[in-house]
Every structure is written in structure tokens, then in C-alpha cells.
User: Fold this.
Amino acid sequence: MESSVSVVYVESNKMSQRKKTVIDILRDSDGFVSGEAISDRLGISRNAVHKHVKSLRGRGYRILGVSRRGYRLEEEPSRLSMARIADSTEGSAFGRSFRYYDEIESTNAEAKSLAASGAPEGTVVIAECQSAGRGRLGRRWTSPAGKGLLFSVVLRPAVPMGEAYLLTLVAATAAAEGIEAATGVGVQIKWPNDLLVGDRKVGGILMEVAGEQDEVEWVVVGIGLNVNTEYSELPVALRRTAVSLKMATGEPVDRSDLLSHLLLSLETQYTNAVRKGFDDALQAFRERDYLVRRSISVETHNGPVLGKASGIDEHGALLVDVGHRQIKRFHSGDVSLHR
Ligand code: BTN
Assistant:
């Protein structure tokens, strides 16, 4: 049977021929190769070799450098198996069109531009590494090459703009279920979009929407997960608050299998929400609500609001009991625990 799956592999256009040659030289050698030998082969300075090695390390190549001996390739970055992913998501609406990048600025930015130029629902943009990964509230999302999952899906839901926001909750619960199915690790959701293992963040969701008041044109759901990231690879500022699935289980996780589970679970929950409404998604979220009954602080333009998290309403807004029998609703915001 002819396959209708399209997988476009996009090799990083920033990976110069010189860097590829450095890798080839190191691959072809059993042991160390001196910086001088590499610089002679390429006709560039030792310093230029050093710079290429540094940039390759940033792309996930583990290259050992020892003075007076040179460089040795220890490990190449792991790559997703798009063939396996396409196989296991065969027949699914989110398994028909993949664009797989070695490196990209941001999968969300790319998915948005594809969506704006008519890409069909279910188009999936995946990258091994992002140079300008974006998080919520203008933050950055960083992940070492080949260690996380970084992907964005184009959706075209027939819902009014006011409901599109609920898709963040759909994506978060779908991601939590996908992670549990693939790894057995329990995941809770910190409203609206943080995926937590225990008290630590393992991933997040960035949803971006375009359209008119009464009709959504497209939605891009971007998911970033720390999968095989080591503790030492987490940004220092996040080492007390972040975790990876490998750190949680003690075992490396098969990223291709995990991505297949995530896409299937996202498709099931999304289709259900668009056809039948958001009740199931709200219920699924409530069962994983990390904040409920905790003392929290919500950052607002007028300063922090303190209170007790009291779940979410039917629109997915966060409810906060601020005392004196008053419940406040928040549709967006930055929430932290208030101890
Ligand atoms: C957050 O927790 O603030 C959301 C993080 C979302 C990160 C993902 S990684 C894939 C996709 N591309 C981006 O630039 N961001 C999202």
C-alpha cells in the first residue's frame, strides 16, 4: 500500500561543510586527532578548529579535548527515528506530515509560518535543538541537542476564539497521559501549562492562536519536554526546580516511542474536545491539578494576589479563594506556591 505520510528532513543550514568534515575526521579515527592535524586537513587555524569543536558540542556532539593529544569523538547526538514515529502514528491525523529539523530557531515560529501559509491540520514540526526556543510569558526554553522533545502541531479547530484557550488544557492533559503511557511516570499539571513530576517541571506548553473573534484560523501547540537531559545539563538557575524523565526514572527514555504516544494522545483528546466539547478535558485536568488547595501567589499587573487555589471553572480559568468569601478568577498569569 502506498504510504501517504510525508516526512521532510531539514538538515541544519547552519551546519557548515567544515563542521561536517571535522566530524568525519573524528569519526574515522579510533583515538585522538590533534588539533594541528585537523587544521592542516581543513586549511584553517587551530583556533578556528577549536571554535568548530565548541559549536559542535553545542549541537550535542560529545567531544573530549585533551591537551597535547587532541580531540576524540565520544558520542554523537541521538536522533529521533522518524520512520518509527511515522509507523506508529500511521492512520492518525497527526501522523501525516512531519518536518524534522536538526536545528531551528523555534518549532513554534516555524509551525506558525507554515500555518499562516496554509499547512493542513496535523502538520508536525520537530527539532533536535532550538537556538531561540520560546516559553510562556516571553521566557526562553532551552534543551541540549538530542536530549529533549521539542515539537509543535498545527491545529485548525472549528471553535470560537474564546474557547481556543481551553486547548492549552487539552494539550497539557494529553501530554501528561502520553508521558504516563510511555514511561509510567505520573505527571501533574500546574495551571495552565506546566507539566510536573513531583514538585519539579518536566515540560511546558506554548499555545499560539490566530483568527477573528468568532472563528479561529489556526492554533499552534508547542510542547517542550526534558527527556534524557542530565542534571548537569540543566541550566544552573533551574537545577532546583526542573527535572527530566531520565532523572525521574533512572533510565534513558526512548524519545521516538514517547513522541508517538504524545501525538496519539493529543489527537484523541483534541478530536474529542472539538467534537463533544471540553468537559472531558476539564475533568482530566482537575484530576491532575497540582495547585488545588495550595496557598499560591498569582502575579498580576497590580502586584501579587495571594490565596488558596480552588480549581478551575468551566472556561479553564484559575479560581483563587482570596478570603472573605471572595473567589477571584484568572485567565492567564504566573503562579507560584506561597509557603
Ligand atoms: C513554557 O513552559 O513556558 C512553555 C515551553 C514551551 C517550549 C516548546 S519547545 C517546542 C516549542 N517551540 C518553542 O519555541 N516553544 C515550544
The chain has ten helices and 15 strands. The first strand starts at residue 6 and ends at 10. The pocket of biotin is lined by residues 106-108, 130, 133-136, 139, 141, 150-152, 193-194, 204-206, 222-224 (CB under 6 Å).
